[in-house]
């Protein structure tokens, strides 16, 4: 993956002036007359992300000016300065202008995230060198770099086609992550899943020629214990309830939950947070063969609950259920699951928000605070207990896909909650994809919720940083 970094603190750099519409007149008055006249002639109005390059008298590049926009325009999105960063010539830059600490942090993170490139499948494309920013005074540069590194890992994993990112390749990336930070791992593959009582992970993945597996990582020896569980469906045809071709076009991203918890794990380990971390990823491919699970099959889960399979395309909750039950067999302070689980969540909040479920108000409040700090928006949806009867089919303990037609994300979350006993629990139903180019977020794979969780961990776990 590309390496996000700030410019060296002692490197020569040009100023990037950040100017608001209300401060534009004052800024122009401080410029030499030719530069001010030139800037006015270009029609610069300091709109959010608008960029102008300012020449010196000899024609060389003297500086640049970027619009900060109005508070109202800034509220309509995130990372506006990334638009300017993308248009800057390569080289080193530093920020100038009146900015709050929050605005400086957002601008610095925007520069890092904007530098992402995914050129693996275009070997003939000349690499483009991004502009690099000196970390502004007062920002936690190491933390921002760790955030960007984790996000880049997530994007790379999601963007890679299923041909090159099946269960074995996801395992290889998982092992590389563990090796980088000295974590220990345990992998359970193929028929051994049955022998070690992961029956639903096996049932979903057994039809593929690429063996299903459970990936487990452990890191840290002291402090509170955190367990992350990520859905790793490397490709989802829907199984025997096969998707239409249009429904498969983005299914390489169905391991977005796994990619996001791996990115978050990278952030945690890179920053050396004082906690014990466990990461669980059920990695499977949901395809069709003679031994594929069938509609109306009844599976017995690791926890012992029976599940009627009413839709083989609702497979993510099956593999997560075994992993969540396993997670709770070891004492842990908090469990967080992440999955590209339902289209219903997209209907509810669209692609830009990360919806989450949590019964613990303190945990939810910590997440909301972390979301603001990390510029990583989230939205709380309800574990609505009165809907519990919807996921109870009568013939088995649970129904993986009740044909109710309402609240599909809620009922999926309620299904998962049945497999968690003991620790505080939070579940994310993310999209993992940016459908159109946005500042600092290119079209393609995207992490959601990881920076918000990172910011919430001190409050959730009582970390002493």
TrEMBL record:
Annotated Gene3D superfamilies: Leucine Aminopeptidase, subunit E, domain 1, Zn peptidases
Keyword field: Aminopeptidase, Hydrolase, Manganese, Protease
Pfam families linked: Peptidase_M17, Peptidase_M17_N_1
SUPFAM superfamilies: Zn-dependent exopeptidases (SSF53187)
Cytosol aminopeptidase domain span: 153-453
Domain M17 aminopeptidase N-terminal: 15-124
GO molecular function: manganese ion binding; metalloaminopeptidase activity
InterPro entries from the UniProt entry: Leucine_aapep/pepB (IPR011356), Macro_dom-like (IPR043472), Peptidase_M17_C (IPR000819), Peptidase_M17_N_1 (IPR048816)
GO biological process terms held by the UniProt record: proteolysis
GO CC annotation terms, alphabetical: cytoplasm
Family statement: Belongs to the peptidase M17 family.
UniProt-listed PANTHER family: LEUCINE AMINOPEPTIDASE-RELATED, PEPTIDASE B
Protein name: Leucyl aminopeptidase family protein
Organism of derivation: Tabrizicola oligotrophica
Lineage: Bacteria, Pseudomonadati, Pseudomonadota, Alphaproteobacteria, Rhodobacterales
